[in-house]
Amino acid sequence: MNYRHDFHAGNFADVFKHILLTRVLIHLAQKPKPYRVIDTHAGSSLYDLTDERAEKTGEWRSGIARLLATDVAADFGDETAALLEPYLAIVTPLIEGNPPLYPGSPFIALRLMRPDDKLQCCELEPAAAERLKANCGKDKRFRLAELDAYVGLRAFIPPAERRGLVLIDPPFERPDEFEALGPAVFEAWRKWTTGIFFIWYPVKDPRRVDRFFAGLCEKGVKRLLRLELQIAASIPDGPLARTGLAIINPPFGFDAQAERLLPALASPLSNRQSGSYVVEWKSGE
Ligand SMILES: C[S@@+](CC[C@H](N)C(=O)[O-])C[C@H]1O[C@@H](n2cnc3c(N)ncnc32)[C@H](O)[C@@H]1O
Q: Measured in angstroms, how far is the CA atom of residue 71 from the centroid of ligand 1?
């Protein structure tokens, strides 16, 4: 396991994923009943943007830095700015801190969760798990299992609350990650057909992504939404230029929010060049 998110924190794919994650969490908090977040590949939850790994790639400079340099109300309009506000309210003070930090998914979830909601994380890489414990371990709503994500997916689903979100955010360093993901997601969904499944992926070979969606649809997964954001031309073996989310059971109205957010984000994140996006129901709205 070589992947370290410190190289990538705050890049365009994180910005895309985390903005949409805030929209799902806000929806979950609209009903009084508690919910659970299961974050299968949690990471360390806070990333120092002056760390040599972040400096080496500079990916955050073409991600969160571009969004923060945008006047969102003037450029995107008030409705889109309102959808971005919860994300920006979490990120902006951290980036303005010393050192500048970027939040990962556990940090964002804990910020938007209520006192009775719960967060179950899995993280297998020892250094990331240590940092995650140091950053979130004092919060009573937080639990960490230093387990393989796919083992955690079987162990923690369905949660007692029967309301909530499963965030699956693999590093895609194993060549068969899509092939492992499809059956694992299907098994988890079968055990909890009303859960929200929020699965991040990179688009390097679009045919593998198509096969992943087709596999879930063929098995009968319902209410499956595909979101993608492209920020530059894709070059074989070049830097990641397109990213996506497969979301099962997105909240009502979430697709309309994505239709608003993605074209807005495509502009600054592509440096006002060739951004494009997809919002597509793959099975049943
Ligand atoms: C893309 S990062 C997660 C980022 C995080 N979800 C966020 O949005 O801030 C993937 C994480 O999964 C961890 N990881 C890799 N393989 C894993 C596995 N088999 N089980 C659990 N965690 C794993 C890596 O150490 C890394 O911290």
A: 32
Q: Which residues form the domain of 20? A: 5-283
pLDDT per residue over 79-111, tens digit each?
A: 999 999 999 999 999 999 999 999 999 999 999
CATH number reported for the structural domain that contains residue 91 in this entry = 3.40.50.150
What's the confidence (pLDDT) of residue 1?
78
Low-confidence residues in the chain, pLDDT < 70: 285
Rounded Cα gap, residues 171 and 198, in angstroms: 15
Residue 161 token pair:
């609350």
User: 104 CA distance to ligand 1 centroid (A)?
Assistant: 10
Number of domains in the chain: 1
In this predicted structure, what is the pLDDT of residue 285?
66
**Distance, CA 281 to ligand 1 centroid (Å)?**
27
Instruction: Output the pLDDT for position 284.
Output: 78
The answer to whether the beta carbons of residues 172 and 201 sit under 8 Å apart is yes
Is the separation of the CB atoms in 67 and 15 below 8 Å? yes
Instruction: Label each residue of 48-70 as H, E or C.
Output: ECCCHHHHHHCHHHHCHHHHHCC
Tokens of 259: 């239709």
Residue 175 backbone phi and psi in degrees, to 5: -65, -20
User: Best mutation site among 123, 144, 165 for ligand 1, i.e. most ligand atoms within 8 A of its Cβ?
Assistant: 123
Q: Whose CA is nearest to atom 26 of ligand 1?
A: 43
Active site (annotated) includes residue 148: no
Closest-CA residue, ligand 1 atom 1, reads 171
